[in-house]
Design brief:
4-stranded antiparallel beta sheet; 186 residues; alpha+beta; 6 strands; single chain; 33% helix
Amino acid sequence: MMPNLPQSMHAGQTAALSTDRELSTIPRADQPADNWEYPSPQQFYNALARKNMAAPEEYVDVMVDIHNFLNEGAWNEVLKWEKRHAECQMPRLIRLQGRPRDLSPLARFYSWTEGVRPFDRHDWFVDRCGKQVRYVIDYYEGYPQNDMPTFNLVVRPAIDDFGSLADRAKQLWQDAKDKYFGSSKQ
């Protein structure tokens, strides 16, 4: 479950931040009629302060907007993987675990070969109609375009079982076919 983050001002904080929360499009596994709520700017600031991560108060609103945008993008990527499993029409997020200091095996490989490290990592636990599936999401900073930041997400099922390994292998094969023989998507 998500931690209960306070809405009160943090010690040493000089500016008041909004306590309004935004509703995501990501369905909750524990409350099927509801979607997850994103943290308010105040909760986001408190979470960063709790982790000893500096956050200039004047940028927290923008940071929250980027956070929410990236999580919506990550969920859309999870749904692309989940389309392989037509038996489950409504996957739901059980919980997520932020692991910013842990490199996934793929991120470690990229750091060795490309010299690039993600700025964050999440493990998302998805309910696929009764089966829990873990997804690994690496968040990378891209090259700015028109003076705007860009981000790249690498989303894939963790290789926790044979089914996830098979999904990854099928996607790797599909990507190779698309690259060398043209896209099969119309």
